[in-house]
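Researcher: Going back to the complex we discussed earlier. I've cleaned up the inputs and rechecked each line, so this should be the final set. Can you rerun the prediction on the complete assembly and write out the structure?
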Amino acid sequence: MRRIQTAIDPKAAAFRDNAARMQAVVADFKALQERVRHERPQRDIERLRRQNKLLVRERLDLLLDPGTPFLELSSIAAYDQFNGEAPGANVISGIGVVSGREVMIHADDSSNKGGAWYPLSAPKIVRALEIAIENRLPVVHLCDSAGGYLEDLSGVYVMGGRVFRHQCILSKLGVPQVAVVLGHCTAGGAYVPALCEHTIMVRGTGAVFLGGPPLVKAATGEEVTVEALGGADMHTTVSGTADYAVDSEAEGIALARELVAGFSQPRKHFDWADAEAPYYDPRELYGILPVDYKVQFDMREVIARMVDGSRFQEYQPGYGVTLICGWARLWGCKVGILGNNGVLFSDSSLKAAHFIQLCNQIGTPMIFLQNTTGYMIGRTYEERGITKDGAKMLMAQAGSEVPKFTVVTSGAFGAGYYGMCGRSWDPRLIFSWPQAKMGVMGPEQAGNTLADVKLRQLRRERPDASDEEVAELRRRTREKSERETSTLWFSARMQDDGVLDPLDTRNALGIALSCAANVPVAEPRYGVFRM
Amino acid sequence: MKKIFRLGETEHACSLRRGAEGMVLETETGPLPCALQPLGAARYRISAGEEQAEALIARHGERIWVRLRGRTHVIDAVDPLDALAAAGHHGGDGAQAPMPGTIVSVLVQPGAEVKAGQDLVVMESMKLEVTIRAPHDGRIAAVHCAPGDQVPLKFTLVSFEAAT
Amino acid sequence: MTAAPIRRLLVANRGEIAARILRTAKAQGIECAIVRHAAEDGGLAPQLADAVIPIEGATPVAAYLDVTQIAEAARRWGADAVHPGYGFLSENPALARALDAAGIRFVGPPPEVTELMGDKISARRFVAERGFPVAPSAIEADDPGSFARRALAVGLPILIKPAAGGGGKGMRIVRSAEVLDAELAAARREGERYFGDGRLFVERYVERPRHIEVQVLGDQHGNVVHFGERECSVQRRFQKIIEETPSPALDAGTRAQICEVAAGIARAAGYIGAGTVEFIYGADGKFYFLEMNTRLQVEHPVTECVTGFDLVAEQLRVAAGEPLGYGQADIGFQGHAIELRLCAEDPAQGFMPATGSLLVLREPAGPGVRVDSGVVEGQRVGSDFDSLLAKLIVHGRNRSQALARARQALADTACLGVATNLDYLDRILAHPQFAAGDYSTAFLDEQAAELGGAAETPPTALLLAAAALSDGHMVAAAADMPRLYAQMGAWRN
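Model: Rerun complete. Updated structure for the full complex:
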């Protein structure tokens, strides 16, 4: 496979200027992520210390194999909602290595509101379990949640049940789960450990019950202690709800590691070779990626900084040139890559449909690098069947059985987001870069359209509205539109699997591919292509 | 795999993993690339970081003997779970009857220091003689049974003092 | 008495000394048997013997101490001689008598000599009466009622010793009159426990004494010679671990004097066979008779190195009735020899005997290096017997060459699977006081901290790597991981 020949000049002023601005965006995102992860009320930390509890990240450090990676998912979920009371949705989820096995980890973060489940908590756990199901990943649950968020129980109720449903599906598929009960698992939460193959409880702090002591007292008048009602000793010697009682969190987590060590190591599918670092310096991505999504860039330069040895076997280099297709290896795994290099035309759509089928024929996973303003519009293109060609691309996607992974690199608008395997098209994992924009329309377009509608409404209701009022309305609408097309906005609402520093993307995709390789690829079967 | 290596008075929590080239031992002081090349007859070439040496190595159970640079070293490998479980016993609990039956003999007195696994009480039930053993190291606080006593299931036969 | 060659020899011992005796006897074409208790892992000696005769006893040691059984074993196998080695029955006249009754020769002095010189109290009386130097002492049996008073009259500090036994057991130093009664009672208890004999005696304790002994040999024809002295002051708990010859403490005059005294004592006692006369040598240059060992000593090889004599061969010749055939002037001394006793014991735990399996055993070799070993790799070392595994003996042109060879020999030795004093021995050799030859029997106690090795820093990284990588499960588990994570390392997004 030949190496991509770069055309960029890292010494050029424009390149360096862009790199500085891009780095600032990434730094802002990392600072936000840091706050979401670690900024906690002091009294909550003190309470945990008093209870002899570890912080959730300390628990993770004990659980994970030292010197191995951890891919955290949806790290900034809920950061801008619920008055900031549920940073990360009070849950950490991610893929890590425990006793040499790739596992999905769900860990309640009790350093905030006692780890209460907010309306986005269950969706975050559900998504983690979905990924576990698709990739046959054993799950380790570190349970420490105060229960459903009382102010919005209706927002928690329906999706909460899907956590338990997914746990049952995992078990049905033969994928084991381990729960370490480090706090109270009350009501629905009690099912998380109960549905695991292996359940460990920490004496003193861990408890599992459908109704806690106050509820029992209110309902039946019975007075009972936490330990007697659902403590580790009761559940491991009387009820059999849990399997092991331990004396410390560290012991519980060490035991979980031992149990995971007993799980069988899945055989890896796909075509793997020895991994090779990219030939070109991945840090040059900062200079290549424009901070403004409207500025065009060559996706080959991005591919060259993500794949092994910067080598790329480009498919149909002369046809449908606004969509780059080709094969490369990433962390040793052979992948098919589809990357936008402009707007999607009929030929690029047909090329995509063909390439997707090629990848399926040889069982090669696909990576979609999105930078799309959508499919070309206009009379000429409609006459040439841009819609039916886009439909072919979608049909090929839907029929595809190989795992798909998506990165929103810069712009992701309109139906292009669907065609390029947006979240709605079931990529195994989808990540976004922090400067990227996405939405039905571009932010200006969306802002202007909305402003026009609102202005007409304003003029109808108050024909005497001042110029200042009109200007203010336009400004507010534009701001809202800017904000709500940001990838951070989407990520905070669990519309992707997380925002990534572009430099972290190669590793994230490597982990994603390794996990996906646990499952053999089924035969593709397609619907009717409108020819 | 994590292990605690006891070397003299010091404990080293370590974890071995495969690295980019060869093995890496994750230690408290950071990752340590290492290798062990057998030279035959218990002789090995060890490398750890920048250091290299030839040594004789022998293992028996959890004990590792290393003859290196004219000194004999003994390292004991401890499973972290064993270490944590041992650290976790605070006493204050007791040994219970696993089934209803009659006490045959009582082998300990209050105040006695017992080791995990030590025989405490012999009882008979369903024509079987069962020996109740100490679940962990500790000091006996009280004995709640005497030979000839009928005891129910889960009766606390012997209780332990809480560790100070 | 007519000389009759020994053709069938039973070695009534075990361990390194049994192997040592077997090597000499076999080299002379003598057919050899050895006894062994079923419960012991015999080590090297049974492999060298032509026959192994099982012996029984409540404990393995009891079997080796069973005179009737040993004599019967010798008779049944048709032995014409029994070599007792050291320890066990070597100084028990009953064995010599039982063998004599069966017409079997005992390789050692006749029972009367053993009775005279083997009993510490009678020996020192005998020696004193003949004008040889003996430390001021008081013997309980002389008049038990006045023993305590007489003990104090010897002059503090005094050393309490059991009348029977040896090996340092039951010995106690008393520096103040108040504790005398308590210490006497304790020593008596220990004597009763170890030797079945609570009788005691006391002698003046020589501060910072050196322990110097002289090898003697007498034949059945009245000839007695000495083979020079051995310095045995490196002791822990009154037990020797390093011996050397010549003693770095003696000048030529004193050496000649002490050796002559030893030979004179042996001659006076009508001594036959190999024996050792032990002396206490004070910082003031005075020496006193301590006791006589009527047998081959553990540390005899250093004498063999510098004299070129095979003392076991000489013992067999004497037992066969041959005359020595050489005089004192024929015995020359060449260079310097050091013996190091490799013991299964843990210096860090008060030299407590250690047990285990000899997983790896490497013995040194090279110019001037001799190993008297009783063990083989894979052997189980139990607690039934003495902790001595092997002796490393080095011979050099002079003391510094011997010392250098000793350190190299220790470096080339390995004994894994059982705690040993190997590293401790090296720290003694490395100590400047030992290098200078300036030490007494108090040396190890005085330098305990330094000799404990606390100042040594272990090569932690190498040891952890060895521990982890020699664990097959750990290596297999480490390798059992999707391959890309090996390179990715501790990455976090």
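Model: Worth noting: The CA atoms of residues 10 and 118 of chain B lie 29 Å apart.
Researcher: Good, that matches what I expected from the previous run.
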